[in-house]
Amino acid sequence: MTMQPQPTGTAGETSLSTDPAAETSPGTPSPGGAPTITGRSPGRAAWDRIKRDRVSMAALVISVLFILVAIFASFIAKLGGWGPITTDGKAINPDTGNYPYGTLGGISAHHLLGVEPGTGYDLFARIVYGLRTSLLVGFASAVLSIVVGVIVGLAAGYFGGWIDSLLSRIMDLMLAFPQLLFIIALTPVLQNSLQTNIHGGTNENLRLLILVLCISAFAWAYTARIVRGQALSLREREFVDAARIMGAGWTHILFKQLLPNLWAPILISFALAVPQNITTEAALSYLGVGVVPPNPDWGALLTDASQYALQDPAYLFIPGILLLVLVLSLNLLGDGVRDALDPRANRS
After folding, report:
1. Which of the listed residues 66, 151, 207, 310 has the most CB atoms within 10 Å of its CB?
2. pLDDT at residue 14, rounded to an integer
3. Neighbours of 143 (CB within 10 A)
4. Where is the composition biased (Polar residues) (predicted)?
5. Distance of CA 321 to CAs 127, 179, 199, 308, 318, Å?
6. Bridge partners of 99?
7. Distance CA 245, CA 257 (A)
8. Peptide bond into 294 cis (omega under 30)
9. For the whole prediction, is pTM greater than 0.70?
10. What is the pLDDT of residues 280-292, one digit of tens each?
């Protein structure tokens, strides 16, 4: 009979962690009266830990709520009756420099979060559509950077030798770059050198693509460094040796043997990369090299709002607080996922 190499710690096996709660759970009592012990997969054990953590569950609920709002942005904006670039001339006072009528930036039954000074755009619609932009860039750049980082990290950790030395030096070089400064310098150059639309400006979808590529280009090295360290340890395990003896190729070992055992650090890296990328995108738009008005984006909203901070503070605080809540909830969720997937974490 031919023996098949079996990776350890995959999602389909019983957890081998030192945390008893991650390994077993009481089942149906046996005929003798003693309860049977049912094994749980690492994924199920991690989910049980997250459910017991109130902070992580609250962060998960808030994050899912933001994601649902972004997905159904078109429908939700219609509830307010205004589009993201629809001007309401009756909501701003031309005698005061087009500031909103009323208090708190013109909040009323017609404009749930008020209107923008000068333009008369509905702030609720702008925020809802801007959330879609921020989450799209954040998740897309996180996925791309994770994919590149996993491939590079696996190759460096498994092959070793000159391949590991070369890839490690590239990682060190990318980590040494001041990320935000280089993205600020690089993004306008790429936008101006690529195809422009009929109005002479860069197509908005192309601008978003460039943002995703630039953020990912400087973010993959963090994941690659983590995956490389894990792969260096796993390549000496018995199931990898068994795969080599049976004649398995390097692609099979990398993606069928090593990769399934790395899902925990990969998931943690992704969960922590999303809020960081959202913050980077907002900063780039705030500095004028990201999404360009009148296209809605939270960073661009904060840029415009900074001009009216004294006259209309609600215009600054509303998108600013929402951005804080979004990034904070995603960060807390990432911390919760990291703690849930680490069986050696100190939990009360």
Report:
1. 207
2. 35
3. 16
4. 1-18
5. 12, 25, 34, 16, 5
6. 93
7. 14
8. yes
9. yes
10. 888 888 887 877 7
List domains and CATH numbers for the chain: 48-341 (1.10.3720.10)
pLDDT at residue 40, as a whole number: 66
Banded pLDDT at 209 (limits 50, 70, 90): confident
Structure tokens given for 272: 């922590």
Q: What single-letter amino acid sits at 195?
A: Q
pLDDT per position as a tens digit, 139-159: 999 999 999 999 999 999 999
SS3 string, the chain, reads CCCCCCCCCCCCCCCCCCCHHHHEEEEEECCCCCEEEEECCHHHHHHHHHHHCHHHHHHHHHHHHHHHHHHCHHHHHHHHCCCCCCECHHHEEHHHCCEECCCCCCCCCCCCCCECCCCCEEHHHHHHHHHHHHHHHHHHHHHHHHHHHHHHHHHHHHHCHHHHHHHHHHHHHHHHCCHHHHHHHHHHHHHHHCCECCCCCECHHHHHHHHHHHHHHHHHHHHHHHHHHHHHHHCCCHHHHHHHHCCCCHHHHHHHHHHHHHHHHHHHHHHHHHHHHHHHHHHHHHCCCCCCCCCCCHHHHHHHHHHHCCCCHHHHHHHHHHHHHHHHHHHHHHHHHHHHHCCCCCCC
Question: What amino acid is encoded at 249 in this protein?
Answer: G
